[in-house]
Amino acid sequence: MKRIVYILGFAVVLLLSLGTLQAQPEKVPEGIVLSFKAGNAAELSKFFHDNVELIILEKEDVYSRSQAEQIIRKFFSEHKPQNFKIIHNGGMDNSRYAICSLETPGKTYRVYFLMKKQDGSPFIHQLRIEEETENAQ
Length: 137
Fold this sequence. Notes:
single chain, alpha+beta, Nuclear Transport Factor 2, Chain: A, 6-stranded mixed beta sheet, 6 strands, 36% helix, globular
């Protein structure tokens, strides 16, 4: 009888654990993180949707994937990344967001991006890079 209780208890714990694991949010694709760390606009652009809303240091517009890649390439050449880390990410269903910190030799920037799934793959629809203020840290 004790053996049955232990087996049933273990089964309940296992089922609850599986449910918890499935409810956890998906992680930001490692390719995005590595692209920011390396300052690699070409690799990052592989995660861009066909049209991307870019808000970079006071300039805002919607660009094609190739235009957005060129703008990000210019940003990376002027602000060489030293470190990139995800501070927070979340979302639900097919939409995800991330708030990140990008450290460069001169400044630290706050990076936000919104991803939506298309055909099962996440694509960046909006990318915002702004100077981090002292209060944000």
